[in-house]
């Protein structure tokens, strides 16, 4: 029955291309992992999503679903129901892992699927980034470097939103500037970040993209101490937790010194008191002897 529904789905032309947005082609290296975002319509928020492997929609194999984990560990899937996208991750890539479909399961009807392709190579990918998952801080800037191996127009896009193709532009009100920092490095800088900027983006060159997930959060507050090295370089010594530990050590040392001083003073006081008692005892003995002598003289 499911096969018949898929055939009808294709014949009628309802391929779901307007229901799911994802990459078209990604270049990746053998043995590595890749995460692919799949944007869906808000009305499918509570539907099951899954990844289907195969070049043909009617014959692809379901490999992982949001309600069923992959026991092999090769595939994983997560669903962000607030931003309406699910993310599939494929591990330990081989040249056999080339064609996939992002799919939303439809109850009592044909599922919606969107195809994407992986170009798996043993050499350097034709388009890649240093890190696919990056973190920026509210009010600050973030820089992404997209490495590519051939010439052509580059652009920076947000999943389901607009793209910046020139040297500057904006995405959802956030300023974006781009330039070629090296012959084969396309550098993107996003300035004045907001928490709403969190989400999936991608670098694109012609029909090849590389997805990047940006998390924008509050910058953690830390207390640091600095010293200058011989070459004038400022080096961070302690974070807040280390500083608290350092202060505790100083307090213990000061208490130890104070206790030592008290013990020494007490010891000296005891010695002086002992000597004073001996002196008092000697003086009392001398007075007693004088009294005895005086009494003897009176008897005569």
UniProtKB/TrEMBL annotation:
GO MF terms held by the record: transmembrane signaling receptor activity
Coiled-coil intervals, chain numbering: none
Keyword annotations: Membrane, Signal, Transmembrane, Transmembrane helix
Transmembrane found in the keyword field: yes
Domain Ig-like: from-to ranges: 125-222
Domain of life: Eukaryota
CDD domains found in the cross-reference section: IgV_pIgR_like (cd05716)
Membrane-traversing stretches: 251-272
Signal peptide: 1-19
SMART domains (alphabetical): IG
This protein's GO CC annotations: plasma membrane
Localization, UniProt: Membrane
This protein's name: Ig-like domain-containing protein
